[in-house]
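Handoff note, outgoing to incoming analyst
You'll be picking up this chain. Sequence as last confirmed:
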Amino acid sequence: MAALSNAVCYDRQKAGLTPACAKACPTQSIKFGELEHLRHTAQERLEELHERGMADATLYDPVNSSVGGTHAMFILRGEGRTFNLPPAPEVPTVHLKKSWTASALAAGLLLGGTLLAFLAEGRATR
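Most recent structure output, in case you need it:
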């Protein structure tokens, strides 16, 4: 499995240096750089692997998900699930609308119940 990343070693990036893992990788399977360049490099590598007969080689780069890409791409033999990578990762905030809707509904029901209790209490004391 080869990793292509641009979200590591912030201290080295600030100093204009390549992340240590990419610099020290003896097989150069860890790459660092601009995402579009890395995607292009990954596609070229996939084509090369397919030409060599590795038809199961795939690129894991979930750009069409709510995360918009993980900024780490992997060239894999097989599916990402084999390596415990989610097929469509999600940003947790995509579930906020449902949460807020459920919370608003619950608050409305509590408010309605409270108003009914006060109205019922007011009628009982007359």
